């Protein structure tokens, strides 16, 4: 059983009369790379700002590192590193000197500067002015700043925003290393679903301030959503549709002259084929398709999949 490093209970938040978070129940397991996803305006940044004490904690309970955010804000923030989009850097100073200023603020030992430079791969460029840094280097320096006090948890809001493919890859590889080699829990929001797919172990998908899915990436692919889809073309799709529906197969919305059915395994594909042939239909095409994260995300946020009961069984406990 793993403990949760972030937990929210019935979290609500309003800007004036506009409610932007609705009973949000977030559960971030310790040790995870946790992708926090949602369409524009879903409430991701608002949640992150609350977690970082940048907005007042509203109705509901927020626990970080097992402590109540309302009562232990300072201690929680000391144990949490963050980066919101782009780091604020002193552009006329070197990477090293930016780190030195921050080190004094958080009272980290001097040796920590060399350590974080090494972790983010900026040792060689430490004494160059940061105005000469590429966006990817600046972003890695931002992560070095977040790591200065050696926090257990990193909260990153769109850390790859504006980066080119190689910058995105550098940041992704860094996050994976921080998680694997240094045991950091990483909570990150991103619109780059293919990036989340490559590095996250857990994720939450929210929309209109409410939770649509929370659990492991594996569960999302294999579990509730049955991400394997069989596409079918027959001599009479209308009859095939009716036959399959009458036999409790789940048909998915599909464009063109093709039927789409959720399937569990290849034996089921063979059964469907036999069933249609026995009922006098000719089967012209059978092909399986596995949803990727982007397709699942679009299905979930469009509401093609019922938004209830999409929470993985809780296998974790509080800190
Ligand atoms: N300071 C504010 N005052 C009023 N409304 C706000 C404020 N900040 C955000 N909102 C509204 O709250 C809702 C959630 O916004 P938020 O920035 O948290 O979404 P998001 O999921 O981070 O979106 P994006 O992916 O576009 O960054 C939106 O409807 C937004 O317009």
TrEMBL record:
- UniProt keyword annotations, A-Z: ATP-binding, Nucleotide-binding, Transport
Record's keyword annotation contains DNA-binding: no
Does the record carry Flavoprotein as a key word?
no
> What InterPro entries has UniProt attached to this entry?
AAA+_ATPase, ABC_transporter-like_ATP-bd, ABC_transporter-like_CS, P-loop_NTPase
The UniProt record lists the ABC transporter domain at 6-233
Record-level Gene Ontology MF annotations:
ATP binding
| Stored Gene3D superfamilies | P-loop containing nucleotide triphosphate hydrolases
Q: Which Pfam families match?
A: ABC_tran
| Family to which the UniProt record says this protein belongs | Belongs to the ABC transporter superfamily.
- Recorded protein name is ATP-binding cassette domain-containing protein
């Amino acid at each position: 059983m793993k403990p949760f490093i972030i937990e929210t209970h019935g979290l609500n938040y309003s800007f004036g009369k506009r409610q932007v978070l609705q009973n949000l129940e977030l559960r971030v397991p310790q040790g995870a790379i946790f992708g926090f996803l949602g369409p524009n305006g879903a409430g991701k940044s608002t949640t992150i700002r609350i977690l970082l004490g940048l907005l007042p904690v509203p109705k509901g309970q927020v626990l970080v590192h097992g402590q109540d955010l309302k009562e232990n804000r300072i201690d929680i923030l000391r144990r949490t590193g963050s980066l919101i989009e782009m780091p604020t850097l002193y552009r006329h100073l070197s990477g090293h000197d930016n780190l030195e200023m921050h080190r004094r603020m958080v009272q980290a030992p001097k040796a920590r500067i060399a350590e974080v430079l090494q972790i983010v791969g900026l040792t060689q460029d430490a004494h160059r002015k940061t105005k000469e840094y590429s966006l990817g280097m600046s972003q890695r320096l931002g992560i070095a700043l977040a790591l200065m006090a050696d926090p257990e948890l990193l909260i990153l809001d769109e850390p790859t925003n504006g980066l080119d493919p190689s910058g995105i890859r550098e940041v992704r590889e860094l996050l994976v290393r921080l998680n694997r080699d240094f045991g950091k829990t990483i909570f990150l929001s991103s619109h780059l679903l293919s990036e989340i797919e490559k590095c996250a172990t857990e994720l939450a998908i929210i929309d209109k301030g409410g939770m649509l899915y929370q659990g492991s990436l594996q569960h999302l692919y294999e579990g509730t959503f049955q991400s394997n889809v069989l596409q079918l073309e027959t001599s009479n799709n209308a009859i095939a549709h009716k036959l399959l529906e009458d036999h409790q197969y789940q048909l998915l919305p599909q464009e063109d002259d093709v039927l789409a059915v959720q399937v569990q395994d290849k034996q089921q594909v063979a059964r469907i084929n036999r069933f249609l042939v026995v009922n006098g239909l000719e089967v012209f095409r059978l092909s399986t398709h596995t949803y990727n994260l982007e397709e699942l995300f679009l299905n979930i946020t469009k509401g093609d999949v019922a938004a209830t009961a999409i929470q993985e069984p809780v296998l974790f406990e509080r800190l």
